[in-house]
Design brief:
87 residues; alpha/beta; five-stranded mixed β-sheet; 3 helices; 5 strands; globular
Length: 87
Amino acid sequence: MMLIGIDPHKSTHTATAVDPETNRDHASMRIDGTLPEYQRMLDWARQWPERRWAVENARGLGHHLTSWLLARGEQVVDVAPSATARV
């Protein structure tokens, strides 16, 4: 299973595909926060048939994308912003 981490911002989102067994990055992309770009990101992610999305702050800045992914049957987990804060 590939884990696709999402770092949402007001106008852009960055996605990084990480193998959770090795913690190795496989690919990344940045998109604008628009519906056509959400579709482009989902098309990109389909290269990993088994995937789960980890969206930082899924109830805040990541809410729109999270709702969109869930409506398409994708598995999504919320990641608290404090879990990704830089020290």
